[in-house]
Each structure stands twice: as C-alpha cells, then as structure tokens.
Amino acid sequence: MLKDTFKQPVSETWRLIKLRMAEYWLLGKQLLADFSLTGQSHNNLIGLQIIAECIKLLKINTTEKGYEVEYFSITPLPPGVVVKEEIKDSAAVARILQDVVRQSGLSTKNIALAIPRSSAIIKNFLVSNKLTKDEIESRVWIEANRLFPNLIDDIYLDFVVLGKASDGSPQKEVMLVACRKGQVNPYLEIIRSAGLHIKVVDVNCYAFERALGLIAKESPQLKTIALLNLSYTLSTLIVIHEGNLIYTYELNYDGRSVMPKNQANGISDEMLKNTLGLHLRHTMQYFYSSRPNIAIQKMFLSGVCAAEIPRFAEFIAGEIGIEAVLANPFVKMTLAPSVDNANLQKQAPSLVQCCGLALSKNHYE
C-alpha cells in the first residue's frame, strides 16, 4: 500500500507533487504510486526535459552551503525525431540520451520529468476526517470512476491529502491528479531504453512553482509574483500569491515565429508586438478576469524565448505594464568545477523547468 508521506504542510512555498513511475495494483486498477510531500534529498535526481529541438539535463546537489549545480547540458536532437512534443523515433532519442548521460560522468540514473498542466486532470474533493489512509485511497478510486468512468483503465492516477478543508468543515481535502497513459508511456520507454530509472513525473506548473519559489526568496517583500514560460510550442503562466500557487494557464503557441532568424540582427520590438502582443494581452486579460482583486507585482520570464530573444524582458514589461525580469534560479548556487558559468547564466531562463525537477525530493532513494 502507499506509504504515509503526507506530513509536510501545504503552506510551503512550493508543494512537491510528483508521480513515481512504479506500478501498484489496487482493486484491480493501476495506481501510479504517490505524491510524496517529504523526501530525503535532492542529490539523487536528474531533471530531464525532452522537446523537439533538444534534450535538457540538470543535476543539482544539496550541500552544507546550499545548492550546487553539478551538471547541465542542452543537446540538439535531429529534425523529425520529436514533433510538437510527440515522440516520432523513441530509439533515436533513447540513444542520444544514453550517450549524454554516459559522457556526463553522473553516477545517478534517476530521472525526474514533467507533463504539461494541460495534459493533467486535477480535481479536489472532501473526505471525512475519520477515514484511514487505506480508506482514503479507496475513495480516490471511487471518485476517479465517477469523474472519468470510460477512461479509468487508460490513465495513471495519483493523489495527495492536502489537510483540513478550507471551508472549516470537519473534513480533509484530497487532490486527485490523473493523466492518460499514452501521454507518458513514450517518455518512459525512452528513459528505460536509455538504461535510466524514472523516479518522478511532475506536472510542469509545480516544477515551475518550485523554481520560482527559489527565485522569489530574493524579493520577500512581494505579495504576488508570476512566471511566464514561453517555449517553442506552449506558453505557461503561473501566479503565486502569498506563497501559494493560485493560478496556472497554458496555451498553445508558436514560439518559433518570434525567434530571431538572424542572431546578429535579432528581432525588432515591432516584430515582437505583431507576433506576441496579442498573445500576451489575451493571457493577462484571462488572468485578471478570473482574479480581479489580485495584481501581479513582478513577472519572471523563462523558456527558450526568454533565453534567446534580446531585450525580451524590456519588451514584455512595456507590453503588460509590470516589472519583468529574466528568471535565473542559479544566482545563489555554487557551481561544480566542470560547469561553464557563462553558458549556464545564458541558458538559465530555458532551464527553469529542469531546475524545478532537479529540486524534487526523491523519497524513494
């Protein structure tokens, strides 16, 4: 049965919500382990991100002096092996991943990766305070069958007990997270074929939240901060208010359309405005329409667009009327001797998700 790992308060700056890819069987159904809210250390996980253009790896250690970046790499992928986040050639990706890890010299083979928030189904519900862990687990399956009766055999499922109900009733709040197996299995196949071990499957918004919580320590006076991640295919906005993740929003987006075609000439603000301005306005209007009483005080920018477009933060700040800066979670971290600091700082905005994954606590070491 599941271990009792639900002891850390959910008021933490970031909730560590992760699915361990080990299979349990309960009532004839497949359960994907548990959301571990506690853990031993960060030192035995590699944060992994596989996108159409490249494979990103990041390893962070916890030391007596804080965090240390042990290793990072961004390795190009041949055209066509991954198309719009869909794996087209698993064997090719697995070979490249295996080679990168072998050349890295890293001793661990434990991997943490994330699925998009749009690929996850997240539902909260209440249960009696009197229920035991096993009874809560059974209730989760009952709720899952009610929510998606025709999909129950086609999903990975996990849950976490958040604590007392927010409405003051004598109940516990439980969060259920599910995703289709087809959205995860190709990545599992790659990782296993590369001789690695999947330990954590996160939802990307929680990986971003974890990294943003680290960055936010430099601005403790701010009540509401946000992170806007712009990749080649997806934009993700998360908002943290008083230390809690209150909002996440994803939208498909053609990031390649705003990338500089010529690195020497870059891209003009007018070109950015024509391609990105409408998307930004839609994203921000959607947030403020759902949270009219909350004002974002500072916007952190991550993703490949933030890393590669010159004056990107200046442009975003002008468009949305909010202070905007490039996200860099590595400012206070020490570096292993083999880490290229200049390259790490340049690529920092594109490594934010990997950072959040590398900081996952591995309860199963």
Question: Can you walk through the features of this model?
Answer:
The protein is an alpha/beta fold and 365 residues long. The protein has 2 domains: 1-204, Nucleotidyltransferase, domain 5 (2-Layer Sandwich); 219-330, ATPase, nucleotide binding domain (Nucleotidyltransferase, domain 5). Helix content is 29%, strand content 31%. The protein has 9 helices and 19 strands. The protein has helices spanning 90-104, 133-147, 181-193, 204-216, 269-290, 304-308, 312-320, 341-347, 352-358, and strands spanning 18-19, 24-26, 29-31, 46-50, 54-63, 66-76, 82-83, 86-87, 110-115, 121-128, 155-164, 171-180, 197-203, 224-230, 234-241, 244-252, 298-302, 323-326, 334-335. The longest helix is centred in the last third of the chain and has 22 residues, at 269-290.
Order the strands across the largest sheet as they lie in space: 1-13-9-4-5-6-19
Number of domains: 2
Q: Work out the helicity level.
A: 25-40%
CATH architecture label of the largest domain: 2-Layer Sandwich
Percent strand equals 25-35%
Helix and strand element order:
EEEEEEEEHEEHEEHEHEEEHEHHEEHH
Q: Calculate the mean pLDDT score and round it.
A: 83
- Whole-number radius of gyration? 20 Å
Envelope shape = globular
Helix/strand-derived category reads alpha/beta
- Count every beta strand, where a strand is a DSSP E run of 2 or more residues: 19
